[in-house]
Design goal:
- It is found in: Cytoplasm.
- The protein is mainly alpha-helical.
- The protein folds into two domains: 57 residues; 153 residues.
- 73% of the residues lie in helices and 0% in strands.
Length: 230
């Protein structure tokens, strides 16, 4: 692809050019749950200068192409390989990070909540997100992903319909989790700690930003690659 146009969707752009996700996050352009709309529509709704954004995006794309990057075309990989990648990369990250980060979220709420009232909402939203993602991961690993692997080995219309129905529920879960992350970004001023923040406060915000980034990539792979192929 020589360059991107406003007709391309954020989801399709990120498939080809993963680093575009950084630009989209900076501009608060959704490339996961709501990433199927043409970029031109999205920037119009968000009152973003389309010409400037496309220039910046395509310049970054040209520079990136000149560098040595190893990318994986997940559309061309077996479904089972993509599933294993999601489980061993993104689910494994959540299993380790969610409990550990939760302790930091609770700590700064306990210590700084009186002077920073938004930390109460942060604490509540984070724990909602944690429970949702833990339950979601279990459902995928124990119910839906085995069905997809079975379909890959022994395809049938009946099994495919069953998977599509299950995927619809998973996409609804993704929407809910994505909305929580958007709310977390809003109440933390883009995960920017206040000037008087202690080290734990700063670590918490930095790890929340990492969690957002990993989750967006996670949802993108499921919604726009795995589920779309089915």
């Amino acid at each position: 692809m020589s360059e991107f146009t406003a007709e391309h969707t954020p989801a399709d752009i990120v498939k080809v050019f993963p680093k575009a996700s950084d630009l989209f996050k900076q501009r608060r352009i959704d490339f996961c749950c709501g990433g199927d709309r043409p970029l031109g529509e999205v920037v119009k709704d968000r009152h973003i200068d389309e010409s400037m954004l496309m220039t910046e995006l395509n310049q970054a794309w040209q520079n990136w192409q000149k560098e040595d990057h190893e990318t994986v075309d997940w559309d061309a990989k077996p479904l089972s390989e993509l599933i294993d990648h999601i489980v061993h990369t993104h689910h494994a990250y959540l299993n380790e990070e969610l409990p550990a980060l939760g302790k930091f979220v609770s700590k700064i709420f306990r210590v700084h909540g009186q002077n920073h009232p938004h930390l109460k909402a942060l604490h509540r939203l984070y724990n909602d997100f944690k429970v949702d993602m833990e339950e979601h991961s279990v459902k995928e690993e124990e119910e839906v992903f085995p069905l997809i692997k079975e379909y890959e080995d022994n395809p049938s219309d009946e099994l495919l319909q069953h998977i599509r129905e299950a995927n619809g529920g998973l996409e609804d879960d993704h929407d809910a989790s994505g909305n929580i992350l958007k709310r977390l970004r809003e109440i933390t001023n883009g995960f920017q700690p206040p000037s008087d923040a202690c080290n734990s406060y700063r670590i918490t915000y930095a790890r929340l930003a990492e969690l957002e980034s990993d989750t967006f990539q996670h949802i993108h792979l499921e919604n726009h690659v795995l589920f779309k192929r089915l």
